[in-house]
Write a structure and sequence with these properties.
The chain has about 130 residues and is mostly helical. The chain contains 4 helices and 2 strands; from the N terminus they run αααββα. It has a two-stranded antiparallel sheet with strand order 1-2. The chain is globular, with a radius of gyration of 16 Å.
């Protein structure tokens, strides 16, 4: 039987996850985790990740899918944001990639036995550049 994840094990996981050579990557990944923390209304990033782990695979994937929908929002036919944040697919995909990568690392470290399975958002063409 696997031990229940603790705040300390999640702190170690996030430290290891952010231990990268490229400072820009570290900044972007930390920013993505902070964005999810704000969405989850958690005290710290570690608390947000621990809460997500505690949900289990089905509910965690549902929560991340709702997070994805909140990032993208709904737009009218003219492209104006009606609800949600209206982030671009690229920005939403970066945040989703960070969460998926963190959970892959958590699985490799024995913290969870599952991974997040929320698909990336299809990229939209901004304008036709084919000439």
């Amino acid at each position: 039987m696997q031990d229940e994840p603790t705040l300390e094990s999640v702190q170690q996981l996030i430290r290891a996850f952010l231990a990268r050579e490229n400072p820009s990557t570290v900044r972007n990944y930390a920013s993505a985790l902070e964005d999810y923390r704000r969405y989850a209304k958690a005290r710290t990033c570690e608390c947000a990740v621990l809460e997500l782990i505690a949900l289990g695979p089905a509910k965690a994937n549902e929560r991340v899918a709702r997070y994805q929908a909140a990032m993208l929002g709904k737009r009218d036919e003219r492209g104006r944001v009606l609800s949600g944040r209206g982030l671009s697919p690229a920005a939403a995909n970066l945040r989703l990639t960070v969460l998926r990568s963190l959970f892959k690392k958590a699985r490799r470290h024995g913290i969870v036995q599952w991974e997040l399975d929320v698909a990336s958002v299809a990229q939209e063409l901004v304008h036709d550049v084919r000439g």
